[in-house]
UniProtKB/TrEMBL annotation:
The name this protein goes by in its record: Ubiquitin-like-conjugating enzyme ATG10
GO cellular component term, pick one: cytosol
Alphabetical GO biological process terms: autophagosome assembly; autophagy of mitochondrion; protein modification by small protein conjugation
Keywords (A to Z) from UniProt: Autophagy, Transferase, Ubl conjugation pathway
Species: Gossypium raimondii (Peruvian cotton)
GO molecular function: Atg12 conjugating enzyme activity
PANTHER family xref list: UBIQUITIN-LIKE-CONJUGATING ENZYME ATG10 (PTHR14957)
Keyword Ribonucleoprotein attributed: no
Family in the record: Belongs to the ATG10 family.
């Protein structure tokens, strides 16, 4: 396919190729987080799903920034009985702000799913945030604790947050609305003077996309991954 005539969208098969390429780069260079996992869509006994149907999952991510050194020691000693990932402000992939903070050092977590939208034909970032006891965080509380740069990103039409049923889990999740995604992804690759082949575009698509949408949550792509 000629990139010059490409509309910025992906087929479900292209999404799967890009998802695996993104997950491999993330795992090899982003040691501060667990790897993204490819989860196949639930199977129905009367319907065989296409091989490429599924989504990427990164779950129970704890992003917090204590105000004092003694707070760091207190949080590091908390044992929830489950494996978790807490990312400090020293990691180069995190924004100086935090995803969620709370009084009394209560830990909050966030799950992220990258799901293919058959309507918009682009990836969509679904997420949910919750307390250590499993209680979900309402959107207004999440928005108050997003990084400072998030308000700027959310003012753009393609990054506003909506809530809808997760297409596979059938439960309410938040998502960054995908309208406009195809347009700015096309412009992003057309601005590349190297004029990459479509195979290269597929390999870099989710990496380039997440480097933009991840900023809403203070998640930055490591410089090592982008090379």
């Amino acid at each position: 396919m000629d990139v010059l005539h490409w509309d910025g969208t992906l087929s479900a098969k292209d999404f799967r190729i890009g998802a695996f390429a993104f997950a491999q780069k993330w795992e090899s260079c982003n040691l501060a987080f667990p790897p993204w996992s490819w989860l196949p869509c639930p199977k129905h006994p009367w319907l065989a799903p296409p091989e490429e149907e599924g989504y990427l999952s990164l779950e129970k991510i704890c992003i917090s920034r204590p105000n004092e050194e003694e707070d760091i020691d207190q949080i590091s000693q908390i044992d929830t009985g489950e494996e978790e990932t807490c990312c400090s402000r020293n990691e180069d992939i995190l924004d100086d702000a935090t995803l969620v903070q709370s009084n009394h050092h209560e830990l909050h977590y966030c799950d992220f799913h990258i799901v293919y939208s058959s309507t918009f034909r682009v990836p969509v970032l679904y997420f949910r945030a919750y307390c250590s006891d499993g209680r979900p965080l309402p959107l207004d509380e999440i928005e108050k604790e997003l990084p400072a740069c998030a308000s700027k990103e959310l003012s753009k039409k393609w990054t506003f947050i909506t809530q809808e049923e997760h297409p596979y889990l059938k439960r309410p999740w938040y998502k960054l609305h995908p309208c406009g995604t195809a347009e700015w992804m096309k412009l992003l690759f057309l601005s590349d003077t190297a004029n990459p082949k479509f195979e290269v575009v597929l390999e870099l698509y989710l990496l380039s996309w997440f480097s933009v949408v991840g900023q809403v949550f203070g998640l930055r792509i490591s410089f090592k991954i982008s090379n």
